[in-house]
Amino acid sequence: MAQGTYPHPVPSLHLMPHLRLVSLYSALQLCHIVRARASLADAAALIQQDLFKPGPQATLTAAGSCSRSPLPAPLHYNYGKYKGVYAPTTVEWGEDEFRQAGEIVRSSSTYEQLVPLMQKLQRGETLKMVVFGGSSTAGSNCKQGPRMNPIYAKECAWPRRFQHWLQEAFPQGKVELVNFAQGAATSSSILAGAGLMLQSYDSHRADHDKGADIIFVDALVNDVYQIQNDWGHDGSANRRLVDLSTNSALAYEQLLRTLHTLQPEAVIFPVIAGCDLCRRHREIHRKVIDFYNLPKLDWGDVVAWKPHLWDGPDVHPFYWYHASLADVMAQLWGSVWQDTCSAGYSRLDWHRTYNDPAELKTFQPCLHPLSAYDAAVPSSTKNVEMTGGWALYEDRPGKPGWISETPGSRMAMNVKFGKHPVLVISWMRSYEKMGYANMYLNGKNYQLDGQWTEGLKENVTLAYTRWLQVDRPSIQVGPYEVGVAGFNIGPDSNMTMVFEVPLDHTVKYKKMKILQVFTC
Q: What is the pLDDT of residues 116-174, one digit of tens each?
């Protein structure tokens, strides 16, 4: 099969300008479009039936001039200003080395798409960042700061650090971050859950504020280790490597195209990890990224120059990796802001595929749920069995949920799973006066915390969403909500899921509020 050379246009994944996801209600209606936003089912039908129409090839021009003051130095390169926010990193950059790292990264791609994002912040608007990835992207093994009050996990990971710098660089705007990364997530598993995750992400926002501005995808570590772990030691080993590498490339391309379908106005920004195995097999992702001319940060290029910036064979690098990557990301964005603020660019071409479009269809996203419970959509709140204190009501105007404050109370929902079982749950989390619930599914127990964990604490009350790879065999016990939550659920299964407020006298507050449950 010749890759990257298809001369004929294929059905485009660019739906229509300004189409966005809408509520679950629209998805369940299959063909309902509200306020010029495409439902998940519309996207699903288009993917299945090859009815995509080419999107407009409009040219976008970034207004303004390049006579601007430089943006602030990255956090850890110039850590003194931020002492107390992030401790100084042990990686010491000389000025020339730091600039060289930025040049190495920037030389491998084009970045004009970033300019309108920074202009949005300059105007005082909100920039919405979404991140997909595995445990390293979620900050597993990342811990930094005073022993009694460190930052760790997602608060320590590079997306949070970069968000902090971007907010400092454009204080007049607001930078929002949702990091959906979780342990063991491969391109294929992210593909299975991304549709539901982005639907949930948009469902909690006002109509005028739906849609991410930029989506970071950092999936190489688990993709290449999946290949390594599936290698055999017999005569078929090489053949299996070829097959698995091809499958990873197919899943990755389909993931990028699906994200573009669901969020057509968002910039897709891949990050290529720098672990040993990642550097040996990074072309699995890079050839797809370069085919679509996407902006990227290839950490493998930097690690090839400075090997200590990834901790040898470890797939969960220490905090200085996250600090360094965030610094180079900041350097990259800052240099783009200075050098290309007046440059024009055209929309990227999603009309052709790198891989054979027929082979891409072997990896299909789940774009409409098989089971759907949404407290904000009355038609989806039926057939929920509640005993002992659970009730559906609004504890705040316009914010309904299934709520209980009674220990021992139980709520049951019947759920159905498809070929690649995925579960997405949204619940309310706050910094005070919330308890926790146990979720029982297929004989396993998973804890949902209503209060922010120390180190992940936010001084806000908001909807929190997790997608669970429930087909995985077991639940990985570990801190900070980074690990895998598997329930050993097979394809095409029907289950009953139970939420229970436990009889736990060590917890002062008991309140739990469930917002949504989706399955595929």
A: 999 999 999 999 999 999 888 989 888 887 777 788 888 889 999 999 999 999 999 99
- Cβ(97)–Cβ(147) under 8 Å? no
Residue in the structure block whose two tokens are 């936003």: 37
Q: Dihedral of CA 333/334/340/341: which sign?
A: positive
pTM here is: 0.70
Sequence spans of domains, the chain:
79-230+243-361, 371-519
Distance in angstroms (rounded) separating the CA atoms of residues 263 and 205: 14
Token code pair at residue 277: 């195995």
The DSSP code sequence of 82-136 is GTTTSPPPSPPPPHHHHHHHHHHHHTTS--TTHHHHHHHHHTT-EEEEEEEE-TT
| Domain 371-519 part of CATH 3.40.630.30 | no
Q: How many CA atoms lie within 13 A of 330 on its CB side?
A: 29
Considering only the top CATH level, what class is 79-230+243-361?
A: alpha beta
Cα–Cα distance between 290 and 3 in angstroms, integer?
A: 13
Q: Return the percent helix, strand and coil in the chain, to nearest 5.
A: 30, 20, 45
- Same CATH fold assignment for domains 79-230+243-361 and 371-519: no
